[in-house]
Amino acid sequence: MENYKSYAELKRLARMQMSGRTGVLIGAMVLSNLITYAASYIVAAIIPTSSPVMYALNYVVTFMVQLISAVLQTGLCLLHLHAACNMECRISDLFYAFKNNPDKSIKIGAVLAVIQAICMIPCDIMERDLVFIDYLELNDTKQLMAAYSAVTSFYAVVVLCMLVYFVVTLAFFPVYYMVLDFPNLSAGEILRKSVAVMKGNKVRYFLLVASFLPIILLSSITCGIALLWVMPYMSMTSTNFYLDLISRRSD
């Protein structure tokens, strides 16, 4: 059995590596999310899902936004790798993959986006059934209760589908790091190598992510503001998990 670093050690390393770099890590995370969410919002605003054709067009453009997000994710991984290796960290690292083999990140992002689309099919079906809410009579208690029940069920299914997606893609956790560490490998080879490296380690990574749930819940006390530190902390810990894993499993 491999003698991997403990969760406590991975987190301790993450806190040390963030020292003096927290602002850059937070800034890159916020900028990446802003770009992705802004693009998604623009798509939703200019391409309403009012008809089957517009719904399909919205789906296609949203898929393209996910591919852009994949390239940004590679840049975020580079930033965290630089921090882990005590190298200079810059916001510009976020855009590194746009100029360096973006096709690999896009191809890998496409695979993950397809998996996500399949996992989220129940949500898409339920979302289309929620159109009745637009025609509610606010003074009708029964209708309001029915709407509340429908919305609650919808978000419960969203959470469940996201959990299923996370579990299904555990084997692909290291792919964006590998795009950077193995530039000579194709997208397909990176996906296969990721599955091989994560064999026997998917539960370990799942439990590592789950160990952050208490601090995420505590962040609600600050109205989510604390998440600005917690999320980079999680990413930095995940980076250390990858480095520890690849140093022992690389062939």
What does this structure look like?
There is one protein chain. This protein is mainly α and 251 residues long. It has one domain (7-11, 19-249). Helices cover 74% and strands 0% of the residues. It has twelve helices and no strands. The chain has helices spanning 7-18, 22-46, 52-84, 96-99, 102-119, 121-129, 141-168, 175-181, 187-198, 202-210, 213-218, 227-249. Helix 2 packs antiparallel against helix 3 and helix 3 packs across helix 5. The radius of gyration is 20 Å and the shape is globular. The model has no long low-confidence stretch (mean pLDDT 88).
What topology does this entry show?
Blueprint: H1 7-18, H2 22-46, H3 52-84, H4 96-99, H5 102-119, H6 121-129, H7 141-168, H8 175-181, H9 187-198, H10 202-210, H11 213-218, H12 227-249
